[in-house]
Specification:
This protein has a 5-stranded antiparallel sheet, with helices on one face. It starts with 9 loop residues before the first helix and ends with a helix. Helix 11 (242-252) links the parallel strand 2 (236-237) and strand 3 (256-260). The chain is built from 17 helices and 12 strands. The chain has helices spanning 10-36, 39-47, 51-61, 63-98, 104-137, 139-156, 158-175, 188-200, 206-218, 223-226, 242-252, 273-283, 307-317, 337-345, 375-382, 393-401, 441-454; strands at residues 228-229, 236-237, 256-260, 267-272, 300-302, 321-325, 331-336, 359-363, 366-370, 412-415, 419-427, 430-438. By secondary structure, the protein is of the alpha+beta class. The longest helix is centred in the N-terminal third of the chain and has 36 residues, at 63-98. It folds into 3 domains: 5-175, no CATH class; 223-345, Roll (CBS-domain); 359-451, Uridine Diphospho-n-acetylenolpyruvylglucosamine Reductase, domain 3, CATH 3.30.465.
Amino acid sequence: MDVDPGSGSIAYQLAVLVVLTLINAFFSGSEMAVVSVNKNRIHRLAEEGNKKAALVEKVAEDSTKFLSTIQVAITLAGFASSAFAANSISQVFAAWLSLRGVGYTLSLAVSNVVVTAVLAYFNLVIGELVPKRIALLYAETYSLMCIKPIYFLSKILSPVLFLLSASTNGLLKLLGLYHDDLEQNVSEEEIKSLLETGTETGVFNDIEKEMITSIFSFDDKKVREVMVQRQDMVAVDLNDPVNDYIDEILRSRHSRIPVYEENIDNVIGILSMKDFAIKAKEKGSFYDVDVRSLLKPVFFASENMKTDAVFREMQQRSQKVAIIVDEYGGVSGMLTMEDLVEEIVGDMYEDGEEIEIPIRRIDKDHYEILGSALLSDLNEELHLGIQSDCDTLSGYLTELLDRIPSPSECPIDVEDAAAQYRILNVEDRVATKVSLRLKPKDADGQEEKKEEKDD
C-alpha cells in the first residue's frame, strides 16, 4: 500500500476541517438570525441611519435569494469538509490501522465510517445546532454582524443562483408542479399556535392573547349573537308625550335612542341625547322639545350579517347605531359601535352602570346565568355541547319546555343531557335569571354502561 502517514501534518488537516465547520456554523447562524430577527426593531434602526439594518431589510425582502445563498454556502462547505476528510484524515487513519496489522480493505472501510461519523457529529453540533441557538438568542446582533458577508456573497453567486433557480423552475414545469407563487399562506390555526407558544414563553400576556383571539372570532360571529335583544332595547314612541319617557332615557345613560311610531317594528329615526339636551336648554324645558326635528336617519342591518361586514359599513356611513331586523323585516334588536368594539377588547362599563356578569360561578358545578347569555359562550366555557337553533339560554330553555314560561311558575326546573336548569325569574316572556348545575360526567358514563348491559 503506497501511503505515507507522515506526508501531511495532522494538525494542518484538522485546522482545515475546523475552518470549514466554522464556515458552516456562520452561515447556519446567519440564516436563523435574519429569519427570526425583530423586523420592527430592524426597521427603526434603518430609519435612524444604521446601514447594516437597512441591508438586513433589503436582504430579507428577497427571501428566496437569501436562503439560496445560504444553502449554496452550507452545501459547498459540507462537500469540502467531507471530501477533505475522505482524502486526508481517513487515509491517515487507515494507514495507522494498517501499521497495526489491520488489512488494507478493512482499515480503509473502518476509517471511512469512523471519520464520517465523527465529522457528522461535529458538523451537527458545532456547525448547526449551537450557532442556530446563539442566533436565536442574539438575533439582532448576529444579523447585523453577518449581513455584509452574506450580501457580498449573494452578489458573487448571482449567476449560480440564477442557474439554480432556472433549473428548479424548469424541472417543476416538466413535472407539472410549477406555480408563479410557491409561498404558502399562513393559516389562522398556525397563527393561533404561535400565539399559544408566545403566551407560554411570556411574549404575550393573557389580555393580549384574548384580544388577538377575539379578532379572529370577530368575523365568524353573526350580528344576532352580539346585538342588544329587542326586549332589552331602550326605545321611545314618537306619539308619547316626552314626560312619559324622559326619566327612562335619562336613567339608561344611552347617548342614542331609537324612536318609533305606533310599534317598535317601525323605527323612524335615532335621537341623539346630546342634541336633545342642547335643544332642551334652548327651550328651557325637556317637555317643549320637538323630538321629530332632531331625529337622524336609521341604519338597518340584517341579523344574519357577519359582524365584520356591519362594522365596516357603519364606519363608512359614520353610524354609531344599527337597528337589526330579522328575515321578515321586524326589529329583532339594535347594535352599537361600542358593542362591536367590546367583542375585541372586552366589556366596557360607564360610571354608575350596573355590571352584569353573564356567567357567575357559585361553587363547583353550580352557576348563576343570565337568560341573555349566548349558547356559544356557554358551550365554550362550560362544555355543555348544546345543539340548538336558538342563540340565547332563554330561547333554549323555552325550546326545552316547549312553551313560554310565565313569572308565576318560577322557579321552573328543566334539564338536558349535560345540566339541570332552574329558571329563577321571567320578564316579558323571557327567562332573565337561571341557576345551572352541571351533571357529573362519570354518572352519565355509568348510566350508559348500565343500559348497554341491560340490552
